[in-house]
Amino acid sequence: QSALTQPRSVSGSPGQSVTISCTGTNSDVGAYNYVSWYQQHPGKAPKLMISDVSKRPSGVPDRFSGSKSGNTASLTISGLQAEDEADFYCCSYAGGNTFVFGGGTKLTVL
Amino acid sequence: EVQLVESGGGLVQPGGSLRLSCAASGLTLSNFWMYWVRQAPGKGLVWVSRIDGDGIRVGYADSVKGRFTISRDNAKNTLYLQMNSLRAEDTALYYCAKGGGGLMDVWGEGTTVTVSS
Predict the structure, then answer these.
(1) What integer best gives the mean pLDDT of chain A?
(2) Mean pLDDT across chain B
């Protein structure tokens, strides 16, 4: 159950697009379409942004999108806004009724 | 409004035990998978455990297997995490979350567990 690999930080200017990668193995990300993404503002509980690789829950802006290729999942945020600044975590089902999170990525809106 | 409220955290000595609770309102817990996720101070999210709606299928992170037990009382609409043989590295904010097979869509605010002598 090794953590998924995410970049420690990404940044972009308002209006730009950024992509956060999440690399696992063929036992987790590569094996299942159960990749989800969570946004966490400081001192707050995480919020589901993307489920099942690319599904956006009701209420999440369509600026957020998810995809997967092989063992790497990605979260893309287009039209960056100041309120997007937060920590983002990917999570994947890893078989055997277990899950694994990524180490988290700090998004800075310049 | 759907709400999850965790309780039961506190300060405990290494080797001690705690039982966390997660009370649900605005939803019927038995319809959902339930999860525990923890976050050490200044660190990232770590998945701990999950249980299905019937309480039959459970899963644990390797780091807590054999020490933690997840359970639920659907009549009380409450999720539990029994934590035994606690270690310093178990110190964290513990969140409960409701979800589906592969996602966690409603989270509580967490309860803090500190393991220290």
Answers:
(1) 97
(2) 96
The burial class, CB within 10 Å (0-12 / 13-18 / 19+), for B15 is exposed
Of B62, B101, B109, the CB nearest to A1: B62
Question: For the segment A29-83, what is each residue's pLDDT rounded down to a tens digit?
Answer: 999 999 999 999 999 999 999 999 999 999 999 999 999 999 999 999 999 999 9
Determine contact: B94 vs chain A, CB below 8 A. Answer: no
Please check whether residue A100 is in contact with residue A6, taking contact to mean a CB–CB distance below 8 angstroms.
no
Taking only Cα atoms into account, the Rg of chain B, rounded to an integer number of angstroms, comes to 13
pLDDT value at position B100?
84
Low-confidence stretches of chain B (pLDDT < 70) are none
Quick one: CA torsion of B57, B5, B103, B80, rounded to 10 degrees? -20
Q: Which residues pair with A64 in a beta bridge?
A: A77
A32: contact with B, CB 8 A cutoff = yes
Nearest by CB: B103 against A52, A101, A104: A52
Establish if A106 touches chain B: CB-CB under 8 angstroms: no
